[in-house]
Fold this protein.
Amino acid sequence: MADKYKKKQHAFRIFSQDLKEGNLPSVIFMYGSEEYLINWAVGEIAKRFISPGTESIDYVKLSDDCSADDLIEAAGMFSMFSEKRLVWAKDFMPLKTINPKGFTVHDREKILDCIKNPNDGVILVFSAASPEEKSELVKEIKKNCKTYFFDGLDYAQLAAFAEKRFKKAGVSITGDTLRYLLDESGYFNKDTEYRIYNLENDIKKIIAYCDGKRVTEEDISATMNGDMDTFVFNFLDAVSNNRKDAAFELLHNIMASGNDIFNIIGVLSRHFELMLEVKEFKEEGLSLAAIISKLRIHEFRVKKAMGFADKFTVEKLRSVLSQIYETDRNIKTGAMEQGLALELLVGRI
């Protein structure tokens, strides 16, 4: 968790400085998981060097299946009306595979010659989200070209990105609520596939959903967590009030909607773990503020967990958690069919 607060000089800042100071070379390589930033950077180059209205002539976006000759021809032409011509080879096939079909050793040599002896009137951009590191062309490009690695943002950078978009829309958001948004997004989770594009789309949904003035935790929960959050809160309400039929129906519905079985189990375990922690702290005499401070979880979640935990004893919550872990093991080892295992779990809660 602490790593997300780590500050570093991200590639987008280095790129911005290079562009501002006029230090962009004729050939550039951009790669990394954040395609949003790659697209942004290429867009900034276009705004800087391409004259308005001449994009169709001076800005060339090559298809991913273009040939070596297509690339060399595009990179060899001069600008007609702009300061420089921009050629973007996005997901160029030789960047993504070791032995791309249709590319010979001679083709690679021609491309390398184009890179090492560039046309000064052109900015040639190679980009790939996940380049093949064993590719000879990738190795040579990294050795001979200016390279920008656009990986994930740190917490401060992502917070600034989100805050700027809310401000532009004329919607306010507090620091605590913004923290809740970023934590709920899962952006900093290990092996996540949630990117800036996803966050931008979620922000648009939140802005459309809220009252147009201020974003609340409830707005974020309703728009980002959707069906799964609705399921777990309704499910906890049902089991805490001993309405097993309703709990069974909710379980069948969430499974029928295509949700991964282990995602469902994971969500249930996290909520019951939180309920147990909240229950234990409350019985120790801690206040709501003290519990929030210890758990470092947003007040909205803690209050929800506290409400459900009040319906259970500490011993019962420990028992339920034990049964959830056992259910997970039984499904993963094949000892029990997943539907039956979950139904038995509900019956035991």
